[in-house]
């Protein structure tokens, strides 16, 4: 068993999230806290990244400055494992800006939720799937709906899979199959089903080869294996991915919080 597979097998959070239950049932307890968790992983390379820039997020919402922090000990081991950050809303009430959870009670934050100005909807969620202190999955929201996911599948501290959603339906998946920090495969979905796949075979950062999903294959069903083998008749008829943009600079890591 490879080191990567061993880490996945030993991580209950990895199993939990990849089973499709990423954000369910984690509201228990109050409180929030900061650790020396490294900044979120973003795709970058020595050259210009062709990864579409992520939506902007105010990451100071999970900083302690100017906020009331309420901590909770959910497993009664006399150590806080859930933290919430609050700021006054100007009307005498407190609004939650951030929540962090130490899921396996090892003193490190495993899940971080960033909230909007109302304190009711997530704008960003970060997950440490293998409990190594580094985020492996980042989920972006707009108006309460998921719009983007970034996943580090080989745990090298760089995202290599990006999923894009419209009305919470998957419309495109971009992959860095050789883990060099640049997208080289684009999957397009129509009505939730794989329609076509574009490949960068030359290293240009753009699609130069297209495959079509075979007719009659419902890849939305469990166990379906839609191998895209039928080449497209005209690559120009399919939309190309976004033009290359510079990778977003990650924020500085938060300071430690005394517990």
CA radius of gyration: 20 Å
| Average pLDDT for all residues | 76
Which oligomeric form is depicted? Answer: single chain
What is the helix content? under 10%
Give the strand line-up of the largest sheet: 1-2-3-4-5-6-7-8-9-10-11-12-13
Structural class of the secondary structure composition? mainly beta
| Terminal residue distance | 38 Å
Tertiary shape: elongated
Largest sheet: 13 strands, antiparallel
Give the number of DSSP strands: 13
**Helical segment count:** 2
- Strand portion, in percent? 25-35%
Secondary structure elements and pairings:
Layout: H1 3-9, H2 12-18, E1 68-72, E2 82-88, E3 94-101, E4 111-115, E5 122-127, E6 137-142, E7 145-151, E8 161-166, E9 169-175, E10 185-190, E11 193-199, E12 209-212, E13 230-231
Antiparallel strand pairs: 1-2, 2-3, 3-4, 4-5, 5-6, 6-7, 7-8, 8-9, 9-10, 10-11, 11-12, 12-13
Characterise the protein shown here.
This protein has 259 residues and is mainly beta. Helix content is 5%, strand content 29%. The two termini are 38 Å apart. Mean pLDDT is 76; it is low at 1-6, 14-46 and 221-259.
